[in-house]
Design goal:
- 16% of the residues lie in helices and 32% in strands.
- With 762 residues, it is α+β, with helices and mostly antiparallel strands.
- The strands form 10 sheets. It has an 8-stranded mixed β-sheet with strand order 35-36-38-37-39-40-41-42, with helices on both faces. Strands 12, 13, 16, 17 and 18 form a 5-stranded antiparallel β-sheet that branches.
- Strand 24 (361-366) and strand 25 form a beta hairpin.
- The two termini are 30 Å apart.
Amino acid sequence: MIRKSAILLASAMLTACSTTPTAPQTTNVSIADYQRAERFLPKNVHKMVRNLAVEPNWINNSSNFWFSEVDSKGNNTYYKVEPATAQISLLFDHQQLKTSIGHNESTAFYLKINAIDVDSNQLTIHYNKQDYQCSLLTSVCDKPVEADTPSLANYSSPDGNYALSVKDWNLYLTDNRTNTTSQLTFDGTEGYPYAVQNQNPKAFINKDPAKVKQRLSVYWAPDSKTVLTHRLNREKVGKLHLIQSSHAEGLRPKLYSYYYPLAGDEHLPTGDIYSIEVESKKVTKVVAPELQQTYYGGPLWGWWEDNNRFYFFEQARAKKRISFHEYNPENHQVRLIVEEKSDKFLDPWAQDAWVLPASNEVIWPSQRSGKQQYYLYDLISGELKNKITQCDCFVRTYRALDKKTRTLYYEASGGFDDRDPYLRHLYKVNLDGTAHQLLTPEPLEHSVRIAPDFNYFVDISSSVQTVPTTKVRSTDDGKVMMTVGKPDVSELMATGWRAPEPFEVLANDNKTKLYGLMYKPSNFDPSKQYPVIDATYTGPHNFFTPKSFWSYFQQAQSLAELGFVVIKMDGRGTSKRDRDFHLVAYENLAAGVDDHVQAIKDLAKKHSYLDVNRVGIYGFSAGGYDTAQAMFRHADFFKVGVAASGNHDFRVDKTGWNEIWLGYPVAKHWDEQTNLNMDSIAKLQGKLLLAHGELDENVNPAATMQLVDKLIKANKDFDLMIYPNRDHFLNDSDYFVRKRWDYFVEHLLGATPIKEYKFEQK
């Protein structure tokens, strides 16, 4: 019934779009409008929905699973699902188990299930800081024992006999059986340490430096005989600094300094691989490619397989090459298995590998055909055996591999002429490329979980305008066996919430189809004209327009409630489509907003309730860059902009992200696309609000302050908000959200903001 209501609501909205509006009307904004906007903030609408999806917890490596659902009071009910018989039952007798563990009925019932053993009918749970062993037959639990506190960073060997640690930048090996520790290295320094990662400053803000533990990169072999780590050379790497102006320890500001490789820097952190033989305590520097580290963390990215070999990636600067290697601890040899190259860039967010030691094969993703596909390589020779995936689509997610039948299950988008190319579907295919089959043909966004025995899968599917359903389906042909779960969106619907409306337009090239959403106020009146606000983020590492019902969880809807139509879309240069679509961003990040301008103009021609003469834009991080760039690049089009946490010059931001799209070394186009370009700044006409968190660990506040300096030198009016004790994300600041509302209400809507409006809903 709820799902039907959502569909009817969407139909009503689409019908209303055809109404011809009258002349623009005088706009006033009331406290009621602000209250309604507050009601639709993500943190508030999140409380209005429950049980949107069933997340299966598989039992004993079978297709049976358990899940829980919560009611409006926070009480959880636990269910068992048996797909073979399409049965749903209570996992245990809830009242009996509550009595057994002494649950107080005045509080919400919630427990953590640690394990289920169906063969012995045992249930292990964690409740009220204690662990219990319970019988599935009687729902009676044993007396509790105090739960062990897990270690936050356990660098012990798989057999538990040894642990690797770092002190004064050197390696130490502890024998846990005898509690004896041996120092393994003696030449480690702060600039050239062993095992430690470049640490995010959030780890030590407001903390005693002496008590902050270093995060280590430690990789133990399955047989516990060998452990791998790295040595990180950061002696010539620059640091960034954060200043905490307001804190509880007096009036003197605090300074936090941290390693941070900037795009365009000559010297990046690099790492060498070190192998340690546990029995002999011998430390060997492995002859391997020098590994670059381009953000926080360590340079070594890899894992051991059960063939007692270690596999790792090496990425060239600017991601023009990504290679995959094997390390053999028996002879300390490193072997190149497969590599991918590009004269432009490779997408590290789409690059992975799956090693199959039993058959000496590796599954390798590549966009060499123009779209992301999977290929099968010989693990020994490195030779290509065959292309695995056969759809005309973009492979998105590896879901499971049935090694017995050699069947690969994966999600992919695209390949249909009649639907949004970003919608995901589940496919299966044999590793030799045969028997390719689509298992979820419905034009929805599908997210699936494959059962451990590969007989069934759970399919969570929805659109932006339909409530999710969770179905159990057969892996043979995708046949629906049963529907589980009861999503509850009644509270959300009762508010008058309206689903966003999908749209399709052409890009700035007048031939490429683009897809987006329009968020309208719940009291939308098609006879009025509404200012348009572009919620922008053109980062090439992903796409950003929601495709599922989870689109309800957006800042855009709350902003729309104040009298705007908010646009969310993905232009050329974003990812998860074909290679040519993605390459538009190469050395061209500043042009990401051009498609948005074209789209808004085209939408205004189709919908006369859109006022193309009153257009605003906002975004954070790369979207903050987009916002300022848009205000300069299209100064006559965008009248108001709010740019938060913007990376306004790509050289004042992390190496790993910026150099992928702009290349290395720094060239002329870097200067042309910076927001610090005085010729661009001179074009600014509209109202611009800049915002940044003082403790932004991702994009340093200097990025915004350098833009401020240029704006002052250009004698341009602008507004600035620096937020003490705030990091990269400002949307969780009620004050910032309200200031953004006020800014658009005053300067784009032409109304008087509700000054000092105080958020009430918690």
